[in-house]
């Protein structure tokens, strides 16, 4: 084959660079010498082809690690331009447009992904979302991802693989790629005694995970596949629904998320950053976002020293050390709205009042006009920031 290529290059008068070519020995180690013309070609265990790293063990692990490193560099190139002054939702927009394509380039070919590879992808994005929002490392990753509306990377990989399946199905019948795909597809389903590796078993697993296998079956019998837009909608709705359900399940079964879920139930997870976008009060929003993501903790209050069930709720509504600031806040709230409103608010539980000041207006929404809503929100947030809770 090398001789063929060499003869062809002589015929058409171009040159191969033997230093830029390598031989990959799959399965068996090679101890032969390969020549391209009169120069030898090195034998290697990995090489890049079209920007995708191919290794002899056919595992995508090294490529995934490379991609995450590439993504980290791309992210810091953006972050170095003063992203701390931007709304995290804006930075996430840049991350989606610049970093994600760099990380997921060629991910359609990451077949046989192992749990450690998935962890590598997850860890990469968790680091980024925390950095974007200025959260400490120990903040729960599900919260950080939810607050920026980012999708988990393993989910994006699955979506891309399913879109790649569409591309293969829609290729012209004469193309070699399509012929190989059809051959491998029928071989996978027809000859179950042979274990197949690669894209087809991988995509079949994804299809069955989201109950979409019937589309591939019907394609094999009729040759019909949904259009690009239809398929995109089918894939997005199936995966998003599954993912939303699993995320909620994860969060509801964990006590750390109790406050976060309560605060976001009427507003959406990204409420704080939307608030910052609308009002321009980014520093206040960053402060409140940290409070949103603080898990409920019991212990001694660091201001008054009393043992309390929930430190944050106690400090917002009960702590004697913050009495003066609190009275000022209540006074401003009653001036802004009405005595009746303040009376209704204060008749509720500590937890309720705290959540109200943290942004969940819940049932009291009926008492507030839309303009009051924002003013009350501003006052509450200013109080929380001023008291450095
Ligand atoms: Zn206290």
Automatic annotation (TrEMBL):
Q: Which domain of life is it from?
A: Eukaryota
Q: Which organism does this record belong to?
A: Mytilus edulis
Q: Report what the protein is called.
A: Uncharacterized protein
């Amino acid at each position: 084959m090398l001789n063929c290529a060499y003869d062809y290059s002589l015929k058409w008068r171009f040159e191969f660079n033997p230093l830029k070519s390598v031989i990959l020995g799959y399965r068996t180690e090679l101890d032969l010498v390969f020549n391209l013309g009169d120069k030898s070609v090195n034998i290697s265990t990995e090489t890049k082809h079209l920007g995708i790293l191919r290794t002899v063990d056919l595992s995508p692990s090294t490529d995934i690690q490379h991609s995450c490193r590439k993504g980290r560099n791309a992210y810091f190139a953006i972050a170095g331009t003063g992203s701390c002054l931007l709304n995290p939702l804006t930075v996430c927009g840049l991350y989606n447009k610049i970093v994600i394509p760099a990380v997921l380039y060629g991910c359609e070919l990451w077949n046989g992904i192992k749990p450690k590879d998935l962890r590598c992808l997850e860890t990469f994005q968790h680091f980024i979302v925390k950095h974007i929002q200025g959260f400490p490392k120990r903040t729960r990753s599900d919260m950080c991802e939810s607050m920026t509306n980012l999708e988990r990377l393993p989910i994006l990989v699955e979506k891309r693989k399913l879109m790649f399946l569409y591309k293969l199905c829609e290729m012209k019948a004469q193309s070699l790629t399509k012929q190989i795909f059809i051959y491998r597809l029928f071989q996978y389903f027809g000859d179950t005694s042979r274990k197949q590796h690669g894209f087809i078993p991988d995509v079949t697993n994804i299809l069955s995970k989201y109950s979409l296998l019937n589309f591939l079956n019907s394609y094999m019998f009729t040759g019909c596949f949904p259009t690009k837009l239809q398929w995109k909608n089918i894939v997005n709705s199936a995966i998003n629904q599954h993912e939303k359900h699993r995320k909620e399940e994860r969060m509801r079964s964990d006590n750390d998320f109790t406050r976060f879920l309560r605060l976001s139930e009427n507003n959406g997870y990204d409420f704080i950053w939307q608030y910052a976008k609308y009002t321009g009060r980014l520093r206040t929003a960053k402060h409140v976002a940290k409070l949103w993501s603080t898990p409920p903790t019991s212990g001694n209050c660091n201001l008054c020293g009393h043992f309390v069930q929930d430190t944050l709720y106690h400090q917002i509504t009960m702590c004697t050390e913050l009495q003066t600031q609190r009275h000022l806040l209540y006074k401003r709230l009653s001036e802004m709205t009405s005595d009746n409103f303040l009376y209704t608010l204060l008749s509720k539980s500590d937890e309720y009042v705290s959540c109200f000041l943290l942004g969940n207006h819940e049932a009291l929404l009926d008492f507030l006009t839309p303009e009051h809503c924002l003013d009350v929100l501003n006052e509450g947030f200013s109080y929380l920031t001023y008291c450095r809770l």
